[in-house]
Predict the structure.
Amino acid sequence: AAAFAPRTRSLALPTVLVAEKLGEGGLELLRKVANVDCSYNLSPEELCAKVSLCDALIVRSGTKVTREVFEASKGRLKVVGRAGVGIDNVDLQAATEFGCLVVNAPTANTIAAAEHGIALLVSMARNIPQADTSLKAGKWLRSKYTGVSLAGKTLAVMGFGKVGSEVARRAKGLGMHVVSHDPYAPVDRAHAIGVELVSFEDAIAQADFISLHMPLTQATAKIFNTETFAKVKKGVRIINVARGGVIDEEALLKALDTGVVAQAALDVFTEEPPEQDNKLIAHENVIVTPHLGASTAEAQEGVAVEIAEAVLGALQGELSGTA
Ligand code: MLT
């Protein structure tokens, strides 16, 4: 009978609040050594009410871990785990002030994000989402959906980190000429893939396609703005699987309306979810997905295990006084 007894909460174990869906492999690891509370879709108030009872919190990009969250935790929260790469939804300054570690899962969703970037690149160039919608509505519009070829075109990969370099490698396989701008990129890694590292201005001036792969920081916020769009090649096509905030969305809308930007493929937005009447999303030359870059079964399982290990490592260091 003992084998079927329901799990009871152990007071000696740390408590981990999992605030967004996490793969089973990660949950299993956590449950071995912690009390795990999976509570999704919490309002900011509900999250604040729960954190004072938790030693660790795990989120994806949908939860804002604000200063209020750290204040409400009253010092109990020791680790925030971001099940993904970008930690721009966590107030790092407040985390530091409250002595809370912030860890992420830096590798497991790289390929998924790169593949989604390529999926958007190809779908946009060949008008696949629009043609699909049109055919399902009973229309047969072959010339309206004539696309553009990728082979021989120049792709500028803005940010040559893990995802950017994998996008570059795949784009080379499609016969594209790939240049990249990244002040921190290792030159030999770029050259090994056949990618030329160039300045920001050179990259955007020569590109037929621009794919964004930089983190959202103070330096990159709205780095694609009216001034930037004034320097691109007319008719450029833009893919964003990084963060919505690196583009000034008003400026992009104008650039689309004037034909400076021919098309955009966006997986990320300044506000997520975006407001209902978002003009960019409704634009006929824009294709969109709801922040799906990391959303493959494989990536989510990998991320879950990677973040569970990072959070437990941090908690163990914390509990034994070494973190
Ligand atoms: C990331 O930062 O890893 C991606 O945006 C994926 C996600 O938010 O889940």
